Structures are given as structure tokens and as C-alpha cells.
């Protein structure tokens, strides 16, 4: 980490937007001035860009921190804002989704068509008894139905919980149970890496195997989209085909108004303990900030832009910058089903050329893997339509930033490096592309209406030139409203550390440079960031110890050239297991096991079988030392270890 910081601090390149870009940019310097003069008035103006069935008269209520409400006496319908109002404004023929399947299938869905589909799905939901406050789990590939399903749930005032299609049956089951979902919307399968990857069997397994857990089954129905064409099992009475139910339903559905604080979705994310947290977002404030940030950071001109955010809808980036932000703004966007390198390593660039993508938003891990393949691949495609590039999910190192700008952006497209979290709901720190002189590697400045600081452990500002902890100092419209079913954990995790100041603690280390720009330095807790996905060390450790061979396990995030961090696991094997089994192939088996328990993204890059773990006298595992080993470094200070010899034993075993 320290070599990275040194490197960052010597970065002095600056890139100003072209005069041409600045002249047409949606986000202007005046926004900063307006927000600085009246923050709440500023957000009220942004909220009024939406359609309110009942206009709000109150903006922020912060009388009971950290429980905020925004626009709470207003009423709106989120789906109406993303669909009907564009059709009513005469833009029904505009394309909403340019869908490209991994196998080359294509569909163009206009705003009128998407509105029609969502109305039908809403009628199906109502017929199945789903209404305001009910939870619906969505476990789908990146197909237009995924977006339609989210919007239909929102339309009837229910709450969606999208579960990433790469998660296992166990992870799905835990999320279904925690939320008490009554309906699951899934597909037979979807295309991934050149073949059909099944989804429905995981749903069947999640719902079948209750193993005497005592959990009451909450799910009544499973609505299944036919995408993969793969053979699946069918539970009569419970399972319903989308292609039978949806077309048969009426396309008349009037969007009802719901209060601004009506819950919109729960999205599970890793925390510092094993149990994922269900982050809860509500309607009016969330949609306000989603639409505003997409407009000003991605510089969306809905009449002319073709926007593409590569995130899966299973992540917050897919919620805010595939479904809600762009559709609230009436934008045209690409939706791509598959992986970046199937059937060939230039697949993404081919999609950009084919659809004339103008604004492209992706993650540093993808950029780094393209860098590795080399510039020859993107250079065989016409990328001249691109005028703005974005980055999200983890710090982007200056080399990758410059490569992105030069090779993908033809040395001209501004890059917005956007810092935010599942919990913040929308972008918080980013350049405005027509205003800010960008710096490779820095997320830079809080957006208009957002207040952040870098503070020390006591909550005191560290000042320019220093590092500390990133905090948000004022409430913001798209802030999480809680953790589903666990208000105490919400307070503890985010607000207790700086309770006397009322600051939100983000869990990230950061540094302010001499200009006051923010440089993100990664998580300060036991959360890893693998390819922009959050994974908790505790969650993977508990999966490892659930294996019959494992006595004890410690997991660390080790730096990795492509994925940012990679999972490295240190495992102690039970003596009893070793007397009955050979240790041959065990590391590989454990990798596989974690993949099955949590999902392939959690599969450790390395599993080291060791005889001991480094612990302090109070029994805390010193992950810092294991990280040294996993990264091939000299092991750091071991003086607080209970047994100082243990690290030399571990180092020897690993080598
Ligand atoms: C949107 C998203 C949040 C964590 C966050 C931080 C890291 C995200 C970043 C970034 C540096 C950026 N992170 N964007 N770090 N620069 N531009 O990624 O949400 O999955 O909840 O992850 O990701 O560590 O705390 P989420």
C-alpha cells in the first residue's frame, strides 16, 4: 500500500475538458455555487425534475439521526418516472434498451414497448398477490426482462431484492429468507462464456432444501423467463412461465402514487461479519440522486447519446446506472448479457462500434484485463463515437487511467472516476466532466450537494496533504435508510464511530492532496475488493470452516494485477481428517467448495494449507502478516503475536 501512495502523490498530470465538451456539458460550475448557497433547496430543485403525483413540501427531516427522510410528504411512482412520462412526452418511439445477447441475439426495446411490458408484468404481480411492501427476489441474467421485472416490482410499490446470477443456491436462499420474499423471478438460464449457464436449478435447490432449518418457506411462486432453452424441472402450481403469463395479462395499468419513503429495494452487500447486510433504499430521494448524477456525471443528452454501463443488475451500479438513472432520464442504453471476452477478446469494443456508444462506464478490473491483452485488440474497432468514459468500483491506478484515456478514449474523452457505495445509492465523489480538470487516480471532488471530509480517528479533519478516514458529513437524498431487519447494525456499522459529529463512516481510507482532491486508498475494514465486488473475509472464512476438512481458516485480500485484490486463504486441516484422507488436491477442493458455497467470484486465488495462524494474545488473527506472505513480501512487525515464531513456520510452508 505505501508504495502505491508514494506513487499516487507524484502524479501531477492534469487533463482539462475540451472547450467543445465544456460548452455542451449538462453539469456546470453553477451547480456547485447553487448547492453551496442552499443545499436542501438545491436537492429540492433536482427532485422536481421528477414527476410527483403529490408534490412534496418538506425536503430533509434529520430530526432523528441517523434515520433521515427526504421529500417525505410527496408521492410518486418510480416506474412511471422511468417509463410512462417519456411516452406521454412523445418519446415512446425512442429506444430504451439496445440489447445484445452473448450469443449474438439482439432486441431493441422502445420506451413504449418497455412501458407496455412493465404494465403487463405489474398486472401479473397484482394477480399473484404482490403489493406494496412485499418482497420479490430477482435472479436473472442481463436480459430486458431483468429491467422490466425491477420496474414492475417498483410500479406496484413492492420491494425487489436482486441477487446476482453468479451467486450459489445457498447465497440465494439466505437472501430469500432474510427478506422473506414471496415471489422469485428467474430464468431457465442465460449465456455466459459461450454456453448456457443454468439459473432455475439454483432456485429449485434454494427452495427445496430446508434441511430442518425451521425456516418457514415464504416463496409462493416462481416466475420463469425462457432464455437459455435448457431443460429444467417444474413444480406445478408454484412455477409459472413469463412468456405465458405476461403476454396474457392486460397492458392497462395505471401507476399508483406511493410515498417518497416507500421502500424500493434491498440489496445485499458484504460487511465485516459473515452475514451479508440487506441495504435498504427508498423511492424519492434515491431516484432524485440516481437521475441527477447520471445526468451530470455521465453527461446524458437523451436525444443523442448511446450510453453503456457494463455492470450487472445484481450490483448497485446496475441498479442505479442501468435501471433507474438512465431510464428516469429517458436515455438510450446498451444492455449486454455476457462476459467481455466471449466469443473473442474484442467483444466489448465490437459492441461499442456496432451501436455507436458515446458514454461508457465500467470498472478498473476490466480495464486492467484489457491492458494485459494489449492495445491491438481495441485498435481494430472504430471507437470514435466515445466521448466520455467512466470508472467505478475500486481505485483506478494512474497507468490504467491513462491507458483508458489514450487507447479507448483516443486521448480526448474525459474520464470520470466515480466513488460511491451500495449504501450511498448513487455517485458521491467524481469530477464533473465539463468542469473539472481530471487527475489520473483521484476521484477528486464531492458532487454539488454532497459534503465529505477526511478525518482522523477522533473525527478531526486531517487537512490537505494528509490521509485518514473518509466520512460523509451531511445527509444526502439517496442514502441508505437502514439494514433490512437490523436497525442496530445500521447504527453501529455506519454511524457509531463518529456519533458525536453525526458523520457517516464509509469504511474507506482516503487522502487529501494539496489541492484538496480525494484519493481513495481502499477499505480499512475486513472487506476485500475483488474485481470491484465486495467480499468479506469473514464470509469466506465461514464457508471454509463449513468444509469437513477445515479446522480453522483466515482469509486476506492480496493485491492482484488484474482483479485489484484476490482472495488468499490460509487453512488449518483437522488432524482427524488427515488420518482418514490424503491431503492431495485438498487446496483445489477447498477453492471449489467456496465457489459452490458463495459463488465463483469468492473462490480463493490461493489456498495455503498451514499448521498455525498468527494470532495476537487476545486471539485476533493478524491478517496484515498473512497479507505480507500472500503478496510475497518480507513479513512485518510480529511483536504483538502470542507466538512470534509462527510466521517463519507459515512462510516456510507457503514456499
Ligand atoms: C459502487 C460500488 C463500495 C466500495 C467502496 C470503495 C470501493 C467504489 C470506487 C472505490 C476507489 C472508486 N470503490 N468506487 N474505490 N475509487 N471510484 O462499487 O459499490 O459494491 O458497495 O463497493 O468500493 O472501497 O467502499 P460497492
UniProtKB/TrEMBL annotation:
Q: Which domain of life is it from?
A: Eukaryota
Give one GO term, molecular function aspect. Answer: acetate-CoA ligase activity
> Is Nucleotide-binding included in the keywords of this UniProt record?
yes
Q: Which InterPro entries match?
A: Ac_CoA_lig (IPR011904), ACAS_N (IPR032387), AMP-bd_C (IPR025110), AMP-bd_C_sf (IPR045851), AMP-binding_CS (IPR020845), AMP-dep_synth/lig_dom (IPR000873), ANL_N_sf (IPR042099)
GO biological process terms held by the UniProt record: acetyl-CoA biosynthetic process from acetate; phenylpropanoid metabolic process
Instruction: Recite the UniProt keywords alphabetically.
Output: ATP-binding, Ligase, Nucleotide-binding
Family membership: Belongs to the ATP-dependent AMP-binding enzyme family.
The name this protein goes by in its record: Acetate--CoA ligase
Q: Which organism is it from?
A: Rhynchospora breviuscula
Amino acid at each position: 500500500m505505501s508504495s502505491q501512495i508514494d506513487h499516487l502523490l507524484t502524479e501531477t498530470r492534469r487533463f482539462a475538458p475540451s472547450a467543445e465538451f465544456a460548452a455542451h456539458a449538462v453539469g456546470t460550475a453553477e451547480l456547485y455555487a447553487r448547492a453551496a448557497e442552499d443545499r436542501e433547496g438545491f436537492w429540492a430543485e433536482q427532485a422536481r425534475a421528477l414527476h410527483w403525483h403529490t408534490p412534496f413540501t418538506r425536503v430533509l427531516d434529520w430530526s432523528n439521526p441517523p434515520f433521515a427522510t427526504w421529500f417525505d410528504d410527496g408521492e410518486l411512482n418510480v416506474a412511471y418516472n422511468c417509463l410512462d412520462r417519456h411516452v406521454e412526452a412523445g418519446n415512446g418511439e425512442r429506444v430504451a434498451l439496445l440489447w445484445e445477447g452473448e450469443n449474438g441475439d439482439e432486441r431493441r426495446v422502445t420506451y413504449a414497448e418497455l412501458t407496455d411490458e412493465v404494465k403487463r408484468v405489474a398486472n401479473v404481480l397484482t394477480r399473484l398477490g404482490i403489493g406494496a411492501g412485499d418482497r420479490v427476489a430477482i435472479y436473472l441474467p442481463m436480459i430486458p426482462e431483468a429491467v422490466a421485472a425491477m420496474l414492475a416490482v417498483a410500479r406496484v410499490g413492492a420491494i425487489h431484492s436482486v441477487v446476482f446470477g453468479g451467486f450459489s443456491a445457498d447465497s440465494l436462499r439466505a437472501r430469500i429468507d432474510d427478506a422473506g420474499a414471496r415471489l422469485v423471478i428467474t430464468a431457465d438460464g442465460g449465456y455466459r462464456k459461450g454456453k448456457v449457464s443454468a439459473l432455475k436449478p439454483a432456485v429449485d435447490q434454494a427452495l427445496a432444501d430446508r434441511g430442518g432449518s425451521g425456516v418457514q418457506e415464504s416463496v409462493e411462486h416462481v416466475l420463469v423467463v425462457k432464455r437459455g432453452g435448457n431443460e429444467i424441472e417444474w413444480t406445478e402450481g408454484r412455477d409459472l412461465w413469463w412468456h405465458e403469463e405476461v403476454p396474457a395479462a392486460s397492458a392497462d395499468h395505471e401507476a399508483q402514487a406511493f410515498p417518497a419513503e416507500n421502500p424500493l429495494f434491498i440489496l445485499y452487500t458484504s460487511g465485516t461479519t459473515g452475514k451479508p447486510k440487506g441495504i435498504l433504499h427508498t423511492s424519492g430521494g434515491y431516484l432524485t440522486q440516481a437521475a441527477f448524477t447520471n445526468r451530470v456525471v455521465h453527461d446524458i443528452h437523451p436525444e443523442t447519446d448511446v450510453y453503456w454501463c457494463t455492470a450487472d443488475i445484481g450490483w448497485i451500479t446496475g441498479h442505479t446506472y442501468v435501471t433507474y438513472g438512465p431510464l428516469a432520464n429517458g436515455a438510450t442504453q446498451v444492455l449486454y448479457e455476457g462476459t467481455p471476452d466471449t466469443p473473442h477478446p474484442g467483444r466489448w469494443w465490437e459492441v461499442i462500434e456496432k451501436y455507436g456508444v458515446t458514454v461508457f462506464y465500467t470498472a478498473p478490473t476490466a480495464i486492467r484485463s484489457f491492458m494485459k491483452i494489449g492495445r491491438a485488440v481495441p485498435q481494430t474497432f472504430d471507437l470514435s463515437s466515445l466521448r466520455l468514459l467512466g470508472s467505478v468500483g475500486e481505485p483506478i491506478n494512474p497507468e490504467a487511467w491513462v491507458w483508458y484515456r489514450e487507447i479507448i478514449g483516443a486521448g480526448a474523452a474525459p474520464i470520470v472516476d466515480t466513488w460511491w457505495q451500495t449504501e450511498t445509492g448513487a455517485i458521491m465523489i467524481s469530477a464533473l466532466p465539463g468542469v473539472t480538470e481530471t487527475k489520473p487516480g483521484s476521484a477528486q471532488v464531492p458532487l454539488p450537494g454532497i459534503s465529505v471530509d477526511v478525518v482522523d480517528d477522533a473525527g478531526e479533519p486531517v487537512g490537505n496533504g494528509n490521509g485518514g478516514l473518509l466520512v460523509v458529513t451531511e445527509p444526502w437524498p439517496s442514502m441508505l435508510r437502514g439494514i433490512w431487519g437490523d436497525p442496530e447494525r445500521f447504527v453501529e456499522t455506519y454511524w457509531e464511530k463518529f456519533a458525536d459529529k453525526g458523520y457517516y463512516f464509509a469504511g474507506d481510507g482516503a487522502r487529501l492532496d494539496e489541492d484538496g482532491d480525494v484519493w481513495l486508498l481502499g477499505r480499512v475494514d475486513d472487506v476485500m475488493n475483488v474485481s470491484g465486488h465486495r467480499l468479506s473475509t469473514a464470509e469466506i472464512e465461514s464457508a471454509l470452516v463449513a468444509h469437513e476438512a477445515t479446522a480453522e481458516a483466515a482469509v486476506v485480500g492480496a493485491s492482484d494485477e488484474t482483479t485489484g485484490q484476490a482472495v488468499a486463504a490460509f487453512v488449518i486441516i483437522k488432524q482427524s481428517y488427515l488420518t482418514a484422507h490424503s491431503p492431495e488436491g485438498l487446496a483445489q477442493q477447498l477453492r471449489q467448495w467456496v465457489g459452490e458455497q458463495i459463488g465463483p467470484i469468492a473462490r480463493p486465488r490461493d489456498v495455503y494449507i498451514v499448521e498455525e495462524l498468527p494470532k495476537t494474545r487476545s486471539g485476533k488473527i493478524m491478517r496484515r502478516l498473512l497479507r505480507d506472505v500472500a503478496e510475497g513480501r518480507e513479513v512485518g512487525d510480529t511483536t504483538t503475536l502470542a507466538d512470534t515464531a509462527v510466521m517463519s513456520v507459515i512462510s516456510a510452508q507457503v514456499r
